[in-house]
Amino acid sequence: MGKVLEKLELDSTPINTKGYEILLKLVENTSRDSFDLNYGLFMYNVNAMEQLERMDFAFESLKKKLFGSLHGVLRNELFENSEKLKALQEKSVKQNGALSSPRETVKIR
């Protein structure tokens, strides 16, 4: 996991949380490990593939949850804007009379 975090090139910020500080320390400690060590752990640990699959599943699960929430936000904004447009149209009808149909055309003679 440390090698993955190292690829993100994380930096300290003025608003680091304690959790973020611990994450930075993890990256600092594991980035010194050689690729050969990681390769050896991968090749000779019988649980390595399962752990990689679990990490992949966890990441995909988080992405689905985030995108699912985004869909809800966008849906709310669309419906809210639709209701605002409808209210403006109704207000316009009350002030100016009926709206003309988009299919109506003006004939010039």
TrEMBL record:
Residue intervals of the TYRAAT2-like C-terminal domain:
4-77
Pfam families in UniProt: TYRAAT1_C (PF26213)
Gene Ontology BP annotations: tyrosine biosynthetic process
Database matches in InterPro entries: TYRAAT1/2, TYRAAT2_C
Which is one GO molecular function term here? arogenate dehydrogenase (NADP+) activity
The organism's superkingdom is given as Eukaryota
Instruction: Give the matching PANTHER family.
Output: AROGENATE DEHYDROGENASE 1, CHLOROPLASTIC, AROGENATE DEHYDROGENASE-RELATED
The protein's name: TYRAAT2-like C-terminal domain-containing protein
Per the UniProt record, the lineage of the source organism begins with: Eukaryota, Viridiplantae, Streptophyta, Embryophyta, Tracheophyta
